[in-house]
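User: Could you check the structure of this?
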Amino acid sequence: MAQPNADPSSIDFAALNLLRVVHELGSFTAAAEKLNVNQSAVSYTIAKLRACFHDPLFVREGGRQVSTDRCEEILARSLQMLGMLDEMLQPDAFEPGSATQNVTIACNYYERVLLIPALVSAIRREAPGMTVKVINALGDGHLRLLNREADVLIGPFARSESGFHSRRLYAEEYACLMDAAHPLADTALDIDSYLCLNHVLIDYGGGWQSAYLRELEAAGHRIAPVVVAPSPAGLATLIIESDLVATVPRRLGEWNADRLKVADCPFPGRFDVSLVWAAHTNASAMHRWLRDLIWRVARR
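Assistant: Sure, the predicted structure tokens are below.
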């Protein structure tokens, strides 16, 4: 194979996009499959970029291509350029009635229960030819936006840094969810009675801490949970006919109110549920339509 050209002017958008895909997948082979090119083409392009930037860009560790610090710097800037190109290529108009695109929404259990059903119904009504994919946001939903794995992110994830836009959908707070026969079900909980409850703690992992826990700890308190669960899924089955109490977002608690009691929490941990998107989709007519639809559904 011929030696790659080390002239920086030979770098094009395709090469930068290939760099992004290798970084995303951690594999030259997987990148070649995703881009529908030969692996030799991927190797040649990476070699050209290495020569231009005077850096290995990727090193192999544990069977995976791991990016260097210099590669991360290059990617941060190149993603902005790729986003600008995307904006220039977006059509000026969007007709939902004849659209056939797929939209991917990153969110978690709360949004899947309370927002996604109505949103999917609205999309199918206005754009029957479109398809919807819902993926977990976890703690890295913003990276899914940057890596083009998701079109929008919904949840308590407002971002203020460069490269993102966000819109507040509504305010939310935490409340206590318990069996209707619980001894304190009809009692206004003060701090002492709340701390003495048999708590179910939802530990989402990934370094995420619920707002009520931050408020509680800021006041110098801690709870000793009886049960720790990774998600609110199945919470009603766990709590019903027991003395267990879970602190959950109020709307999620009210979703179970036909079977359980929702009571005010002395540490409401108020937060905003937001719609977040990456700058490279900001000017897209399709994405503007999607964001407006999400806003309308969330505000009902």
